[in-house]
Specification:
Helix content: 25-40%
Order of helices and strands: HEEHHEEE
Shape: globular
Number of helices: 3
Number of domains: 1
Structural class: alpha+beta
Strand order of the largest sheet: 3-4-5
Radius of gyration: 13 Å
Largest sheet: 3 strands, antiparallel
Strand content: 15-25%
């Protein structure tokens, strides 16, 4: 049982857009898929950078986790985030979508 840790990761990760899913790919045995579970998404992110946790923190600070169901017309993954950074709970009405090259 995860308990209060689940609430922590829900608060730390960006909110998904309707129909969205966090991309998980680092510790899935080579399969890229998606999840709506922020705890599973955080586990996958930190598992993939298990020798350098600061890189996982950098991902959260700069972009958030890519949305597995949000792609542009060429199939490139897009990131959705609130406000001016990966996680801005103070401005939930501002949602931006950006394409990362």
């Amino acid at each position: 049982m995860i308990g209060p840790t689940a609430a922590y990761w829900t608060d730390m990760l960006q909110t998904l857009q309707p129909g969205g899913a966090y991309t998980i790919k680092r510790c899935t045995g080579g399969v890229t898929t998606g999840t709506t579970d922020p705890v599973r998404a955080a586990y996958d992110l930190f598992c993939g950078f298990n020798a350098n946790e600061t890189t996982a923190i950098q991902v959260l600070d700069q972009n958030g986790i890519a949305d597995a169901n949000l792609v542009d017309s060429k199939g490139n993954s897009l990131f959705s985030y609130h406000g001016n950074c990966g996680n801005d709970p103070m401005q939930p009405s501002k949602i931006a979508v950006v394409r990362k090259e």
